[in-house]
Amino acid sequence: MKRMLMLALAALMLMGTEVSAAGNGIVIDGSTTVGPIAKSFAAYFTKRYGVPVTVSESGSGNGAKSLINGACDIAAMSRDMKTQEIAAARKKGIQPVAHVAALDGIAIVVHPSNPVRGLTKAQIAGIYQGRYTNWREVGGPNSRIVVIQRESNSGTQESFKTLVTGKAVPIMPRAESQASNGAVKSRVSTTPSAIGFIGMGFLDSSVRAVPVDGVKPSVASIRSGTYKLSRKLYFYTSGQPTGSIKQFLALPSTADGRRIISELGFISQ
Predict the structure, then answer these.
(1) Would you call 264 helix, strand, or coil by DSSP?
(2) Strands 26-30, 74-77: parallel, antiparallel or unpaired by DSSP?
(3) 108 and 30, same domain (yes or no)
(4) How confident is the model at residue 163 (pLDDT cuts 50, 70, 90)?
(5) Backbone angles phi, psi at 210, to 5 degrees
(6) Residue 215 — φ and ψ, nearest 5°?
(7) What is the pLDDT of residues 3-14, one digit of tens each?
(8) Does one domain contain both 132 and 159?
(9) Residue 252: which domain range?
């Protein structure tokens, strides 16, 4: 009996049938920015191939923890995995492998009624560090700046600090924290003196993206690298994927995958 069981397991391995975190199907956890791509891919993949895919949006940091703890098959992340996360993974025998899902730009957003038509990266850093507290100091009206940031486990927060203020530079204590791109957008859209930052895929007419150093976030400026707040969005796996996980991760390079990414406001690599 034992010999038959071993032969059956060996046969499954030869067929490329990987053991997923859910036991059946694919489990994804992580970034709220990558979430719309992950959820749209999941719906497409399940409908086309009959493989269930579950998606949780707990933030990039928690996605990395889930992968390290074997609680998910794919960690969705809007930033590179940190050195200490990679070290923690390797201690548990996990070799994180990054797969680019799409390209994105971090849009600096204000209320549509805000007359400021552009900011420099230095001015944005100054606002978030508390050097500028009134819009008139950066060319706007006499109004206190309401500063909106993301919570600490957010990959978008990490990317913003890396690209704008510097990783080691603290954000002003008075900045409000919101849990998702949608929450930041909602707060800015209802607060005339607010400023926030969101993934480009979340832009709509309820907020206005200001040019940074004279460049608007767009498909062309992000692809060319002229928009300086550009970044890659990732799916991380434990080792090289096989079976249905490998098939899922090939979606960004397919015609349907590129169409889905574009429809969501993101950019194919």
Answers:
(1) coil
(2) parallel
(3) no
(4) very high
(5) -95, 140
(6) -120, 130
(7) 443 434 333 333
(8) yes
(9) 26-103+233-264
Q: What confidence category does residue 22 fall into, taking pLDDT thresholds of 50, 70 and 90?
A: low
For residues 108 and 220, membership in a common domain is answered with: yes
In a 13 Å sphere around the CA of 201, the CA atoms on its Cβ side amount to: 25
Backbone angles phi, psi at 57, to 5 degrees: -115, 85
Q: Examine the domain organization and report whether 92 and 197 are in the same domain.
A: no
Whether 229 contacts 244, CB under 8 Å: no
CA 111 → CA 55, 116, 151, 158, 224, distances in Å?
A: 31, 10, 21, 23, 27
Residue at 9 is within a domain: no
Establish if 10 belongs to a structural domain.
Answer: no
DSSP helix/strand/coil, 221? helix
Whole-structure pTM value? 0.82
Mean residue pLDDT across the chain: 91
3-class DSSP assignment, residue 187: helix
Tell me: do 112 and 219 sit in the same domain.
Answer: yes
Q: Are residues 128 and 193 in the same domain?
A: yes
Are 124 and 228 a contacting pair, CB within 8 Å? no
With tokens 């080691």, the residue in question is 168
